[in-house]
Amino acid sequence: MFNIAIFASGRGSNTRAILDNIDGGKINARISVVVSNKSDAGIFNIAVEKRIPHRYLNPSDFESDEEYTGVVLSVLDEFDIGLIVLAGYLKKIPSAIISRYRNRIMNIHPALLPAFGGVGMYGMRVHNAVIEYGVRVTGVTVHFVDEEYDHGPIILQEPVRVYDDDTPESLSQRVLQVEHEIYSRAIALFAEGRLSIHGRRVYLQQ
Ligand code: GRF
User: Fold this and answer.
1) Domain with 18 in it
2) Which of 31, 49, 160, 190 has its CA 20 to 30 A from that of 56?
3) Nearest C-alpha to atom 3 of ligand 1 is from which residue?
4) Whose CA is nearest to atom 8 of ligand 1?
């Protein structure tokens, strides 16, 4: 069975959607460990409820980046992790982990990259910026993680229309519903070995 590690800092609604799709047989994998940098993250309640091993690992509790990286790598080894899924994880992944798990770390971003991404663009900041700019279409991007924020090869994107009466909150809710669908789809494609990557381009095999 294919092992996934979830890294998350918040409430965990994407994680819950992924777990539902695993339970429903749509993803042939299991979530083997949940890692968070926040001791009170909602994601830990989900891990306890679903009896998933979980680890609180906060980079600032470690003497050095190397020490933190070593502990994270040992957790990934312990659970024989094949894919790291970032689901609202707000810390940067150390470059040693990115190079060891090249094209095996996924992130979801609540906009159509490369628009409205990059340093400081997370959570409601993204939807505020989308509304303020006045774009008519936003959406969701699932991508592999590289050394730059919101930059790696794009796996799936799905548009979401912006309506005249949208607020950042109303828009974020519709975007989140799409996130819940496409993150699982991307993970399922990966677990089935149907993604091939050439440079920046990700090809979906039928
Ligand atoms: C999502 O909007 C995701 O796009 C972003 O962080 C949020 C996480 O939400 N990266 P949740 O914790 O999965 O509910």
Assistant:
1) 1-101
2) 190
3) 88
4) 88
Nearest CA among 162, 161, 158 for reference residue 178: 158
Q: Report the CATH number that the domain containing residue 84 is assigned in CATH.
A: 3.40.50.170
Is the same domain home to 148 and 186? Answer: yes
Q: Is the CB of 174 under 6 A from ligand 1?
A: no
* Rounded CA separation 166/168 (Å): 7
pLDDT in tens, 114-149: 999 999 999 999 999 999 999 999 999 999 999 999
Which one of 101, 130, 162 terminates a domain?
Answer: 101
Residue 127 known to be catalytic:
no
CA-nearest residue, atom 9 of ligand 1? 88
97-109 per-position pLDDT tens digit: 999 999 999 999 9
Candidate of 9, 11, 14, 43 to mutate for ligand 1, largest count of ligand atoms within 8 Å of Cβ: 14
> Exposed, middle or buried, 82 (CB in 10 Å: 0-12/13-18/19+)?
middle
Residue 13 alpha carbon to ligand 1 centre in Å: 7
Q: For the chain, give the mean pLDDT.
A: 97
Judgement on whether residues 121 and 144 belong to the same structural domain of the protein: yes
Please say which residue of 35, 67, 101 terminates a domain.
101
| Number of domains making up the chain | 2
